[in-house]
């Protein structure tokens, strides 16, 4: 558990610092005074003013950081080095720079990963065209309360055998399960280089399939490697594809909320992210890099949603100001951002509580062991 928390702190720390560095560097290049660049969140341990006049501080809460920009809340608008005094284009760039940096970070990680070999889902055509290594059939998703979930199968498990048959393709495994659906089946899996034998009995799962099944989604994966130039192209391609899918996922999430369908169980908060980070780290460094890139893209999309207190919400008020051709009422804007921040904190608390009920057994035991 300690390693899981440490991994979470490092990953989120990198993502948030990269995000804040985007705001920091664009503000300085735009002639806006940066008052403080903080590593971690207050209370402050210590701070030192650099030659550029910026206070560089180290703070007690060790996740990420922050940038304090002069005039970011509408004050000192008439000062030439204030955020509020700058043109629309410069303020828009400063507000969006953090999101842009998170996208660039993901692109860089994916491209670098492809240079050295990165795991991904493959099909027969891709397998023929590329030098794919470590081909395996893995569990992509486990349906809750299904025979697979009750037996203890997990996302990421590599299925090597079923009964006495070696597993080489997804279709071959699915066909075997279908043909032997009346009998218990023994799966041999590789989980973090540990071989396990798990018995599963297929059942009819209501709303999932009319045939008996064990309740998993399977994917064929392999480690794919490209040459130097192709890696950058593929890194950009997967970054754009994932950004599109993440935007669509957020659209579906808010659509369900507005239609009264509630929050999907797939949505995770800090506890859920910590659990996933720990599981990914157990599989190897390259998997952790992939997770960091995907999380960076999620952070980018989340931050640019047009919701008060987020970068996207501030950008929206900037656009409104541009359309009105006069400054917004700063008291009203600050109040809206304050309410938005409070709502975000309530959402985080709710999702965290739900995460603890899903994953919290190990977390609670770890906390108890501290005392």
Write structural notes for this entry.
Strand 1 and strand 2 form a beta hairpin. The chain has ten helices and eleven strands. The chain has two domains: 176 residues, no CATH class; 101 residues, Roll (Pdz3 Domain), CATH 2.30.42.10. The relative contact order is 0.12. It has a four-stranded antiparallel β-sheet. The chain has a three-stranded antiparallel β-sheet with strand order 3-11-4. A two-stranded antiparallel sheet has the order 1-2. Helices cover 53% and strands 21% of the residues. Helix 7 packs antiparallel against helix 8 and helix 7 crosses helix 10. With 371 residues, the protein is an alpha+beta fold.
Largest sheet: 4 strands, antiparallel
Report the strand count: 11
List low-confidence stretches: 366-371
Secondary-structure content class: alpha+beta
Q: Secondary-structure map with pairings?
A:
Layout: H1 2-29, E1 34-49, E2 55-69, H2 88-116, E3 118-121, H3 124-129, E4 133-142, H4 147-151, E5 158-162, E6 165-166, H5 170-179, E7 185-191, E8 194-200, E9 203-204, E10 212-213, E11 216-224, H6 228-258, H7 270-283, H8 285-303, H9 311-324, H10 330-369
Antiparallel strand pairs: 1-2, 3-11, 4-11, 5-6, 5-7, 7-8, 9-10
Helix pairs in contact: 1-2, 1-7, 1-8, 2-6, 2-8, 2-9, 6-8, 7-8, 7-10
């Amino acid at each position: 558990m300690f390693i899981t928390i440490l991994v979470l702190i490092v990953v989120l720390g990198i993502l948030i610092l990269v995000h804040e560095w985007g705001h920091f560097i664009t503000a300085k290049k735009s002639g806006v005074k940066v008052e403080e660049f903080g590593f971690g969140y207050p209370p402050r341990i210590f701070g030192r003013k650099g030659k550029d006049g910026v206070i560089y501080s180290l703070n007690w809460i060790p996740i990420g950081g922050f940038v304090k920009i002069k005039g970011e809340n509408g004050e000192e608008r008439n000062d030439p080095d204030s955020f509020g005094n700058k043109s629309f284009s410069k303020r828009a760039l400063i507000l969006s720079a953090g999101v842009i940096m998170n996208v660039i970070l993901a692109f860089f990680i994916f491209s670098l990963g492809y240079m050295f070999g990165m795991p991904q889902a493959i099909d027969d055509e891709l397998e023929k065209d590329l030098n794919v290594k470590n081909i395996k059939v893995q569990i992509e998703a486990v349906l809750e309360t299904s025979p697979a979930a009750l037996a203890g199968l997990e996302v990421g498990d590599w299925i090597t055998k079923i009964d006495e048959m070696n597993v080489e393709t997804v279709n071959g495994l699915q066909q075997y399960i279908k043909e032997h659906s009346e009998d218990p089946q023994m799966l041999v899996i590789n989980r973090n280089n540990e071989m396990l034998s798990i018995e599963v009995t297929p059942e009819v799962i209501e709303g999932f399939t009319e045939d008996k099944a064990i309740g998993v989604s399977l994917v064929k994966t392999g480690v794919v490697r490209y040459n130097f130039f192709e890696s950058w192209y593929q890194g950009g391609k997967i970054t754009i594809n994932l950004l599109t899918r993440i935007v669509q996922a957020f659209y579906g999430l808010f659509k369900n909320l507005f239609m009264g369908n509630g929050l999907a169980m797939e949505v995770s908060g800090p506890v859920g992210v910590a659990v996933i980070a720990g599981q990914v780290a157990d599989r190897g460094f390259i998997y952790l890099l992939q997770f960091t890139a995907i999380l960076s893209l999620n952070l980018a999309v989340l931050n640019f949603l047009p919701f008060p207190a987020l970068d996207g919400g501030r950008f929206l008020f900037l656009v409104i100001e541009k359309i009105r051709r006069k400054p917004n009422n700063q008291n009203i804007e600050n109040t809206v951002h304050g309410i938005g921040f409070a709502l975000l904190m309530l959402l985080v608390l709710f999702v965290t509580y739900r995460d603890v009920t899903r994953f919290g057994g190990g977390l609670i035991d770890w906390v108890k062991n501290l005392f």
